[in-house]
Design a protein that fits this description.
Number of domains: 2
Radius of gyration: 25 Å
Strand content: 5-15%
Helix content: 25-40%
Structural class: alpha+beta
Number of helices: 4
Oligomer: single chain
Number of strands: 5
Order of helices and strands: HEEEEHHEH
Length: about 150
Amino acid sequence: MTDPCCEAMRRQLEHRCDSCGEEGCPDQVVVYEPAGDYAIPIRDGGGSQYVISFCPWCGSELPVQESTPRPDWTPPAKEEPVPATDEALAARLQARADETDSAADHDELHAAADVVASGLHTRYVDRWVDELRKRWLDTRPDPANGETR
């Protein structure tokens, strides 16, 4: 590790907390990794970190170890759009949106109908639409198909 760029960075990198233990202290907002990266830990229970290129306090560019191998890191797979339009599902979601009394449900169902009609959505959105379909369409009769309440 090179010398810290400023006193605030030095304090962060040398921070040791007796009450939190060696790792995971919320008071330590910047860490130096053996791979040569300065990072901000994402404290969500996992080990994720946001690698930074500039000091948050003085703005100096931080040195980067370009030659350090990272065998455990692989780039995340790019989530491709799922090209699927379903006009019938979009119409049913739209009809349910128009029937509901709840403004929040109305807006959510309209948004889902728009996404389904566009065909440009991801697997994550597909899961959301599927959950809405199960909650709003599979458990209620469809008047368009002659089903009554």
